[in-house]
Amino acid sequence: MAEVVIVESPAAAGALVADQIARLIAGRPDAVLGLATGSTPLPLYQALQTRLADVDVSQVRGFALDEYVGIDIEHPESYRSVITREVVEPLGLDPERIRVPNGSLDGIEHAGADYEAAIDAAGGIDLQILGIGTDGHIGFNEQGSSFASRTRIKTLTEQTRADNARFFDSIDDVPMHCITQGLGTILRARHLVLLAFGEGKAQAVAEAVEGPVSAFCPGSAIQLHEHVTVVVDEAAASRLKLADYYRHSYANKPAWQGL
Ligand code: PGA
Questions:
Q1: Is residue 136 in contact with ligand 1, taking CB distance under 6 Å?
Q2: Which residue in 86, 116, 126, 137 is the catalytic one?
Q3: Which tens digits make up the pLDDT trace of 9-49?
Q4: Which of 115, 141, 165, 232 would give a disulfide with 236, using CB separation of 3.0 to 4.6 Å?
């Protein structure tokens, strides 16, 4: 079962996970991080700025979860731009070591296989940061995605396009397709850390953590992984049936275990 940690605020979640990432990098300077975009990981990236300020991150490697297909890479909302602006630059990472799936139409047929090969060549992802969509998607794996899927092209649902329209001038500007790590790709990372904040995520979190394992809720794939940490605020935890047990377990967790 996933370890569920209920914290008082997104900032507290960010601090907790930033500590874990700092420990990872201390033990492995060329650690491979799986990077998520969206609003959810921002408090984590902010906490990492402070936490990693005196840490040598020059060897750290990273792989983003997904990218829009056909978007100009220079567009401020391409995930390449977002990762550069929100992660690479503020944390001082080496841009050459941070990969984002190639969403350009040129070579799109083999972009997924190329990305999988790059992850393999890096030795796999040590810690994968995940958000979750209101419909339960992780990465851009929409409902019905195969648990065995690898990096590939997907069609975005209208709900996801509407959710993401806030980053664009209008919903018509949100691309129709994306390239995303598959659920099978995500499940190969050694540690999954799923973050979710706010009431709007409560149902998706409950279904992912406690619901049936089903492609209907792609986030439920995390139940198949042996090392998962779900860090949520009270609002996002509000529909978890076992919330009291999660609080009790975390309060009594042996200090040596880490996340
Ligand atoms: P959000 O998106 O962090 O912007 O809420 C999460 C997701 O769609 O995976």
A1: no
A2: 137
A3: 999 999 999 999 999 999 999 999 999 999 999 999 999 99
A4: 232
